[in-house]
Amino acid sequence: MTAQELQKAVLRHLELSLGKDLAHATVYDIRMSLTLAVRDQVIAPWFESTRKTYAAQSKRVYYLSMEFLIGRLLEDAVNNLGLKQTAQEALDALGFDLTQVIADEPDAALGNGGLGRLAACFLDSMSTIGCPGMGYGIRYEHGLFRQSFHDGVQIEEPEDWLRQPHGWEFARPEAVERIGFGGTVEAHDGRMRWSPADAVLAKAHDTPIIGWQGQWANTLRLWGAEPIQAFDLEAFNRGDFVGAAEQEAFARTISRVLYPDDTNGEGKELRLKQEYFFTAASLRDILRRFLSEHDDLELLPQKVAIQLNDTHPAIAGPELIRILHDEHGLEFDHAMALARNTLSFTNHTLLPEALERWPQALMARVLPRHLQIIARIEEAFLAAQPESPVRILEDGDVRMGELSFIMAHRVNGVSALHTGLVKSTVFAQLHRTFPDRIVNQTNGVTPRRWVLGANPRLSALITDRIGPGWVDDLEQLGALEPHVEDAGFMADYAASKAGNKADLAAWIADTTGIAVDPAAMFDVQIKRIHEYKRQHLNILETIALWQDMRANPRAGWVPRVKIFGGKAAPGYVRAKEIIRLINDVARVINADPVTGDLLKVVYPANYNVSMAEKLIPASDLSEQISTAGKEASGTGNMKFALNGALTIGTLDGANVEIREHVGAENFFLFGMTAEEVVARREDPQHQAKAIAASPRLAGALKGIADGTFSDGDGARYAALLADLRGHDYFTICADFDSYWNCQRQVDAAFADPARWMRMAALNTARSGWFSSDRTIRGYMADVWDITPLI
Length: 790
Ligand code: RUG
Prior knowledge:
The protein has 33 helices and 24 strands.
């Protein structure tokens, strides 16, 4: 497509789809017109992919996920179709700037963090590889809340991405499923029949996901909840206007909000309904498609692979059995075997509070038939494993982790370390019983978004030196390694980082009013705010550094900009205290004339995918400092390494594998190992001893306690301090000195720009393994048993 052709298509949509004349077109109008024009280009490969899948009678993969953190789609599509330059020229001619138009698209924030973003990367990779499949989730009216700060305190407001039409999706009014809740179960002619008391409609909305170079496109199908009947006319005519809309309110509530739940358990009835809603709708859709091609249910595991992204869709096990047994009349054990051979399950966390459990009483009320089926699953499991101490139903709860494990033929962890821990801790008993079931699939990230889209400077440089093949074969980055010895390449590499940093500095000045020096080290920690991720360790080190700098400002310090980004779950009090503390510390440090440009602390509000795309390419240092054993994998760590930021990190999650790939000498390691953390906690005095041994840590804690950062209000952080001094489960104190010392090694390396840039370039050259294309190929081979169709 030429720029002229694209321009014509944009103008046609501007007139005919948006009803606007160019003379009055806003950025929004142009963005929508461009979106529709680009979307037109996606349709043919999309249809073709579906035709090929049917023609090959291929197996399909269905990725069931409560979260798809897809962010903006226009730039991905433009890049994948090779239309970036063309679109720029087309818009230039119309007097608009592509970058500005792309930035106008609201982020689809249908996820909390890593789990949802991983699902989005997987969709891109599946389409790039030609793995026939579909993502299934919920079309939340409001994604993750919008964050702002008032006096440093996090304020949450509803996010509103659907206020404007969503240019990418196609509503499918014909693809509706009736989803019931509650009611009774009775036996009829030897079969159990569930009669739900309430029901809603699940209506499909399809977004095509185009792969690299437009060779394949899969579908993301998101379900929106609608009432069975628009409103109750009889109640309305009686004058009961509120009552008349009750059904609608109930239905819409189901797809209204994304639970702001990352690793904090949420035990809400609505969440259970959301989980069942999208899982049941998806399964029916999947079976309808399967039965349109095959008439033998026996073939189900050969033709269908269903991936459960965490336990959120775990009700798929009992629901599939219910359909096969209650509706199609298969024997229970047979139905269970077919379901198990079709389902597989990814575990993303070991945090006990995140392993879902539903009260049996709640399950009995909302999904009475499913509770009966779960009891039979447990019975069947125990009949085969009479010695096993494992129970799905325990202490009045349904344990969704155990249910998922027992109902899946493959269970995977998301990094080598995490998978080992899954085997040795949370599912140790089940692993003993089924030693082949657990496999590892280390996470990955899509290079199309996280390098090509987010970092055009670096991408152009890479392509210039090794050609464009790296974009869908990221291990080709290895060919950059010899260039690290080439002064010309290194100068270009450093220039690309400097350009990104200058852009970021301008953006920071614009959005926060804080002037930062682009020559300073950009030290970045962006992720959900959680005690295990230890943003408070970072801010304590920041305070200690500031105190040292003030005491001796001319000691040759390496200037730093500490950048934080992330949201706390609204109900997570401690995480919100940490946010406030960071903002308080930032206010004081940024105003200090003694330290001036030596140290700045920046915390732009409302961190999201698009902000990550700005921050990561401009980062020097990537903070991956979780308490070892707690971060299942991380994916941000991979994005940073690819973009040439050096990691300071613990031996946790995928950090371990990143360090192996980039080389220990190009990675700043500190802190206790997972085993050491467990052993250290045995000593109830571990935190007190660490504080007593570290005057610096004691000084930083004292700075908080005496109100230096809280206008003299010593009580503001009393609870946080008491926890650190008295309990410190996340071992902040015990790791503080190690972290501090490691940061000084970071300073020393940064003070030698040639050394630093070499390390950074080696990180880029050696991180090709962390592509989600590699991960998806792993799932295809080890979990789904499917081959690509391109
Ligand atoms: O916390 C984990 C990350 O370590 C991981 O990289 C990501 C994707 O596998 O999933 C995150 N996660 C875990 N998000 N929610 C949960 C709780 O189930």
